[in-house]
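Input chain follows. Return structure tokens only.
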Amino acid sequence: MENEADAFYRELPKVELHAHLNGSVSVNTIEKLISRKPHLNIEHGMTAIGKGQRRTLDECFQVFKVIHQLVDSEEDILMVATDVIREFAADGVKYLELRSTPREEKRTGLTKKGYIESVIKAIKNCKSEGLDIDVRFLVAIDRRNGTEVAMETVKLAEEFMQSTDGLVLGLDLSGDPTVGHGKDLLPALLRAKNCGLKLSLHLSEVPSQQEESNLLLSLPPDRIGHGTFLHPEMGGSQSLVDQVVTNNIPLELCLTSNVKGQTVPCYSKHHFQYWYQMGHPSIICTDDKGVFSTNLSQEYQLTATTFGLSHEAIWKLSQQAIDWIFAPDAVKQQLKQKWEAMKPQVFK
């Protein structure tokens, strides 16, 4: 039986701003994908990190490689994106920005354009089903693929931004943080910014990236993913913190992901506390709800129990996330009205 505390977090209206599509695939969807491709001999343990388990960052990226083997056609992407959106909606998420790197697979005829089109189709299908969730898409640059591919990705994102009536509204920079350097991606990111795409950049995910973080903060990005090692106590610097604070750049914080990926030693030492106590915009997110066996309700509950936050403080945290979505002000206003309308029901 669900207790009252669990019910509060599930009924809490939520905003999810850092969710990688392939990392958000649930056990149920993985099951469907495995049954379609038995020849791959993939088992559940290869696609998710269970309760109490941890992996190195490198091992986490190996998990994505396995999932990519299962998701390699337009049909797969449509199913995966549809399932992921439905699951976020069932968890009380009212606004979702999904992100993913468009891939091509010669064997199945999948193109990068077809990849994005399949995600857009899933978003539109879920809308026509009447799901109470507003979904947008951020096209992701994988830093491992270098300058040229990054520029191609931006051009693709630009094209979809103009043709999808606001469904594609930004760009994510992600991929293995130990590979490549931000300076090689700067031309693509500048082009994206200049054409009106919003930027959410994975930044300072691993130690000793001060130079790169400094460079990328000079853009500046509209939001930061993780930012684990920005502050001096974690090997960052006061000057990095000052840039983030001066530009009021919100952080997308993913507690379970960081603990299971071992970039943070334990929940109580998560950098959420550092930024939250400072009053800096901090958004609770899942990162990869499938891979890390979590959901957004659980992440809010973990935040509350770890840092002693009241229901009122959690409500405020959830509501303030609306200010940092990439959709226009009219959408923000609608969401704020929805939150106000739902408040009596959640605090009943």
